[in-house]
Amino acid sequence: MGSMQRTTQTTKQTAAGCYAGRHAEAHDLLKRIAARLADHQRRQAAEPADWGYAGDLGRVIEQLAYVLADLGDQSAVVQKGLEY
Known about the structure:
Helix content is 68%, strand content 0%. The chain is mainly alpha-helical.
């Protein structure tokens, strides 16, 4: 039996490197959200009497208000009367 050598490569991640990767990921998510929001608006326009679309956005807006608060701006949660 031959012996197989194991090689372990460890890379140290820096806080700055981690932040840069997550920042890029956040921007990608924002672009995707914008695209889905535009698609949602098109679907709502095809069914203007459907209250479900307004309900969807109510929930999304609350979630976005919390995201904004997590980034240091609590104005949206205060405006909506949400607990934070």
